[in-house]
C-alpha cells in the first residue's frame, strides 16, 4: 500500500506526493484519507483509503522506464493520421483517465501527428486533450527526474519531433 512521502499518480490529475494521512469522522464513521499534494497545479486532494484500489492511484514510474515513454511519444498510430477531420476526444479522454503514462504519451504522439497533417490545426477538444496529456506527463517527469516544468516540456517536445 502507500505511505506518507510516496510519489504517486492519480488518473487525470497527474503526479503528486502523499503528504499526510488523516482520519475524519463522517456521519459517525471514522474514515482514513490520503492527503496528496500535486505540485504542478498546487492542488491538494484527500483520497479515501478504502477507495484507493478502484481510484487507479499508482506509484510514479522508475527512471529506467523513461525510454518507453520517449518511444511512445515518437510513435503515432497511423489510423489517427488518416482521418484528420474527426476529433478523437472520447478515445483520448479514455486513455487519459487510465492514469497510464504510456497512454498519455500515445495521446500526445497521435494528436501531434494529427496537428501536423491538418492545415487548420486541431479541434478544440483535441487541443484540450493534448494539453492535458502534456501536463499529466510533465507532472510525473518532475517527480521522476526532478525536472523543472520547462525541462519536462522540452523532453516531450524533443521526442515528439522524432515522430
TrEMBL record:
Which one GO biological process term can you cite for this protein? rRNA transcription
> Signal peptide position in this chain?
none
Q: Which InterPro entries match?
A: CarD-like/TRCF_RID (IPR003711), CarD-like/TRCF_RID_sf (IPR036101), CarD-like_C (IPR042215), CarD-like_regulator (IPR052531), CarD_C (IPR048792)
- Classification via SUPFAM superfamilies: CarD-like
The record's section on Pfam families has: CarD_C, CarD_TRCF_RID
Top-rank taxon, per record: Bacteria
Segments forming domain CarD-like/TRCF RNAP-interacting:
1-112
* Protein name as it appears in the record: CarD family transcriptional regulator
Q: Which organism does this record belong to?
A: Salipaludibacillus agaradhaerens
Amino acid at each position: 500500500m502507500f505511505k506518507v512521502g510516496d510519489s504517486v499518480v492519480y488518473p487525470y490529475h497527474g503526479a503528486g506526493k502523499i503528504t499526510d494521512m488523516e482520519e475524519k469522522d463522517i456521519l459517525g464513521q471514522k474514515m482514513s484519507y490520503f492527503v496528496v499534494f500535486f505540485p504542478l497545479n498546487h492542488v491538494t486532494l484527500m483520497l479515501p483509503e478504502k477507495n484507493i484500489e478502484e481510484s487507479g492511484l499508482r506509484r510514479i514510474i522508475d527512471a529506467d522506464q523513461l525510454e518507453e515513454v520517449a518511444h511512445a511519444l515518437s510513435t503515432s498510430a497511423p489510423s489517427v493520421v488518416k482521418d484528420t477531420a474527426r476529433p478523437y476526444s472520447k478515445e483520448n479522454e479514455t486513455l487519459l483517465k487510465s492514469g497510464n503514462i504510456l497512454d498519455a504519451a500515445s495521446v500526445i504522439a497521435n494528436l501531434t501527428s494529427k496537428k501536423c497533417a491538418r492545415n487548420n490545426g486541431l479541434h478544440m477538444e483535441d487541443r484540450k486533450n493534448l494539453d492535458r496529456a502534456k501536463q499529466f506527463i510533465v507532472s510525473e517527469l518532475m517527480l521522476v527526474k526532478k525536472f523543472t516544468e520547462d525541462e519536462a516540456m522540452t523532453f516531450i517536445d524533443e521526442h515528439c519531433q522524432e515522430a
